[in-house]
Amino acid sequence: MAKNKIAQWAEMDTFPHVVQPKMEDIMKDSVPLKGRWHANFFKNDKPIIVELGCGKGEYAVGLAKKYPDKNFLGVDIKGHRMWRGAKTALEEGINNVGFLRTRIDFIEHLFGPNEVSEIWLTFSDPQRKKERKRLTSPLFISRYRKIMKPGGLVHLKTDSDLLFEYTLEQINDEQYNCSFSTWDLYGEAIKNLDADTAEILNIRTYYEEMWLELGKHIKYCKFQIHE
Questions:
Q1: Catalytic residue among 13, 45, 105, 125
Q2: Can you state the percent helix, strand and coil of the chain, rounding each to 5?
Q3: DSSP secondary structure string, 124-164?
Q4: Domain identity same for 181 and 93
Q5: What's the CATH number where 190 sits?
Q6: Least CB-packed of 10, 74, 199, 221 within 10 Å?
Q7: Which domain holds residue 166?
Q8: pTM of the model as a whole
Q9: Same domain for 100 and 14
Q10: Is residue 149 domain-resident?
Q11: 180 Cβ partners below 8 Å, 6+ apart?
């Protein structure tokens, strides 16, 4: 297993669509692509959608296939997981998706103001004992605000009752504009969605398949954190 990881990390160093910023640049707030993702990475002005905690990249790749008129970035710190999505994108010639290997804590140092149109949180760690570290906590929402366009959407898809309930509480307390939420996505909820939205939400990650096999309900909501 260790040899596989080392080989995957080495291969990722050769991928043109994988960015692994230096810690010294992050700490100095001088990451070269910050504010320049459109011009220098994607080389177009299409909207940028970011998947935080992308794991194997199933959502970033799946969305990129469906929406060639948008740009997608999968973000994660675990390179051996990210390698799978990056490899698939390369093999299939999907040129509107990239991968960013970094800790999500540094997100505000990696993008400029108004640079991100949407954020997807797919099966994030619920951080049972550390509310501040939940990806829908006030700390992280404040970071998203610094990089997102006005009216940009945050999507949360999770198996965790704890994280979902916490997120709904944040939405209510902070009066975010929540346009859709369900505690059982694959029950009656998905039958009532339009075909386009249902197709998007039917993209399933490795971890989602695992939770479904255990009989867990999948929760989903989407909301705006500012106008």
A1: 125
A2: 45, 20, 35
A3: ----TT-GGGSTTSHHHHHHHHHHEEEEEEEEEEES-HHHH
A4: no
A5: 3.40.50.150
A6: 10
A7: 122-227
A8: 0.93
A9: yes
A10: yes
A11: 220, 221, 222
